[in-house]
Amino acid sequence: MKIRFKLWLETDDGRPVLGKGGINLLKEITLTGSISKSAKSMNVSYKFAWEYLKKVNEILGGIDMKKGGKGAGGTILSEKLVDIVNLYEEAQKEVQNVLDKYEKRLNEILEKSD
């Protein structure tokens, strides 16, 4: 038996901003500097990735999207946004560690014979 969770950031009024997929997209952009390459790597459309990043940028800021095309343009994340990505991943690991402990206890209970 497993215990699962999903972690995301949302606005104070409950609008989702960033979850696991968005974090992965931002990490991929950090590596490639390109929305197009990142979208392709993650098997999502460029339009989906661009619209998602536009929403994140409107709420959090920190995404510098330069228009271009082949050999021009590019996307850069601010230090603040990189810090948010790192914080999300740190929280993800910490919560998973706690849940692993409870999952172990759950399975011990389930393995007991009645």
UniProtKB/TrEMBL annotation:
Organism, as annotated: Sulfolobus acidocaldarius
Superkingdom, taxonomy of origin: Archaea
The keyword Signal appears for this protein: no
SUPFAM superfamilies (UniProt xref): Winged helix' DNA-binding domain
Record's protein name: DNA-binding protein
Stretches assigned to coiled coil: 81-112
Annotated keywords: Coiled coil, DNA-binding
MF-aspect GO terms: DNA binding
Cited PANTHER family: DNA-BINDING TRANSCRIPTIONAL DUAL REGULATOR MODE (PTHR30432:SF1), TRANSCRIPTIONAL REGULATOR MODE (PTHR30432)
